[in-house]
Design the sequence.
């Protein structure tokens, strides 16, 4: 009896399996949608310095804005990247609406709190390395990135960044140097490696040393060298109109560097003389998608990290929202090629120790107020400068930061910062007067103080002006995206992507 029942169960299960298979096959035939695990088009979008706190704060702010104003369509130059107004939860970030969610650990080879070169190398090549090393192992041997492996396979390749295009994150995908500061060598290696699309800041590393803006030590004019290799070269913001009007053709290669150093913070990009990260991503799609073998494009929201180093709450939010616009741009392409497109959205590490509630002393409260952020019109670093004119500082506070009156503690902090800077110069640090917080080395005590006044007014806290060792979220969507739905090391991301592309790394 037992044997007959077992055989009957087995037989029933076989029939059920066949029926399910037939139903699924019918559904696929009806929809015409067959999702492959081997993507033809790969978007690897990295928010530098972006962890869950940065992305969550940006989403809350976006929702807050939409309470009283129509939903943003992110229109620019007469075009809308994606109209999100008709979609469910349209005020959520696009990255938070992708299908799969995982997390990555970020420690370096010998450090728990990583540098950008370390984390970028891990995400790009699948190995751990030293703090400032770009795509070399701990023995200084060059290692291959997933982008370069994709290129060897015949895929088109692209790098986009709002930082200098020679900065650590893009560099890890297309160069190998012992120190991230070797940006002149990184720029030259992009030419040697024939990266098809390069868009971001950093023109100073392509100019010959005879140019007063150059950071090179030699007479190489890389703009001329790229042009001689057949690249369409747009070397400054004066070429932005031509870049926008440019219609790529199959086989073209492009270099676009609208700024000498980093692209402006999104909150300062008011005149739109430089394209947004979403616009640069779209131009990359227009170019790279013409390759029959597909493409791999790395897109970095590089200035999220810089804003968080400054503890600048408004700049952090706006650059995160701009980065999410690039995710929307990739998603729009996915909708056109759902069977072949993979979108990966990750941070490389967290910056600033951002806390979505600020407690000072023995305060105890559950509260945030995003209203004051709406009144901030400029970044702390680029939009404001203390020149010694104290009256002007108070005018700037009102006009640019929406602060008409300081309380006693805020005024004391600001006056102390101005006293220190007047005595010691812009190189002084708020820690020098018993300081209230860490200060990024490239901003002044007055700038740092204003950053913390504006953050505190929204009950936003910061524990650091440097990186932290937090675990970082990763989101994915499309072909093979389920593979990233796990708790991983950051090295796993490169290795999984290489497996999906059927390429070898190291």
Sequence:
């Amino acid at each position: 009896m037992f044997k007959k029942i077992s055989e009957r169960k087995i037989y029933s299960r076989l029939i059920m399996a066949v029926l399910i298979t037939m139903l699924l096959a019918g559904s696929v035939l009806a929809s015409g949608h067959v999702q492959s695990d081997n993507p033809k088009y790969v978007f690897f979008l990295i928010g530098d310095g972006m962890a869950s706190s940065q992305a969550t704060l940006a989403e809350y702010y976006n929702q807050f804005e939409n309470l009283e104003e129509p939903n943003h369509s992110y229109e620019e130059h007469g075009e809308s990247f994606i109209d999100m107004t008709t979609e469910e939860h349209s005020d959520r970030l696009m990255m938070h609406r992708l299908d799969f969610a995982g997390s990555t650990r970020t420690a370096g080879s010998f450090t728990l709190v990583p540098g950008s070169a370390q984390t970028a190398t891990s995400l790009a090549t699948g190995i751990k390395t030293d703090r400032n090393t770009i795509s070399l192992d701990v023995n200084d041997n060059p290692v291959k990135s997933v982008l370069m492996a994709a290129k060897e396979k015949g895929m088109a390749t692209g790098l986009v960044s709002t930082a200098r295009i020679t900065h650590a994150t893009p560099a890890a995908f297309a160069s190998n140097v012992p120190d991230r500061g070797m940006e002149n060598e990184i720029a030259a290696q992009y030419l040697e490696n024939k990266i098809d699309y390069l868009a971001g800041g950093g023109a100073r590393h392509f100019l010959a040393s005879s140019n007063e803006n150059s950071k090179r030590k030699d007479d190489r004019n890389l703009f001329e060298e790229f042009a001689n290799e057949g690249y369409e070269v747009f070397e400054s913001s004066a070429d932005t109109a031509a870049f926008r009007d440019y219609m790529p053709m199959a086989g073209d290669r492009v270099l676009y560097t609208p700024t000498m150093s980093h692209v402006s913070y999104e909150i300062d990009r008011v005149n739109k003389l430089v394209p947004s990260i979403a616009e640069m991503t779209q131009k990359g799609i227009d170019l790279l998608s013409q390759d029959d073998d597909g493409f791999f494009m790395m897109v970095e929201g590089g200035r999220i990290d810089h804003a968080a180093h400054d503890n600048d709450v408004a700049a952090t939010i706006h650059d995160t929202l701009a980065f999410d616009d690039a995710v929307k741009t990739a998603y729009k392409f996915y909708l056109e090629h759902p069977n072949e497109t993979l979108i990966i959205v990750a941070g490389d590490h967290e910056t600033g120790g951002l806390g979505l509630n600020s407690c000072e002393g023995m305060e105890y409260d559950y509260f945030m107020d995003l209203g004051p952020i709406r009144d901030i019109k400029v970044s702390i670093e680029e939009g404001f400068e203390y020149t010694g004119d104290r009256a002007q500082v108070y005018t700037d506070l009102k006009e640019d930061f929406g602060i008409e009156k300081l309380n006693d503690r805020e005024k004391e902090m600001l006056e102390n910062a101005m006293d220190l800077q007047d005595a010691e110069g812009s190189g002084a640090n708020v820690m020098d007067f018993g300081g209230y917080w860490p200060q990024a080395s490239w901003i002044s005590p007055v700038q740092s103080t204003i950053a913390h006044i504006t953050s505190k007014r929204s009950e936003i806290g910061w524990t650091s002006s440097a990186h932290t060792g937090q675990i970082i979220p990763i989101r994915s969507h499309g072909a093979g995206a389920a593979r990233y739905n796990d708790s991983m090391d950051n090295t796993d991301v490169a290795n999984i992507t290489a497996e999906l592309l059927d390429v070898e790394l190291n």
Summary: DSSP finds 16 helices and 16 strands in the chain.
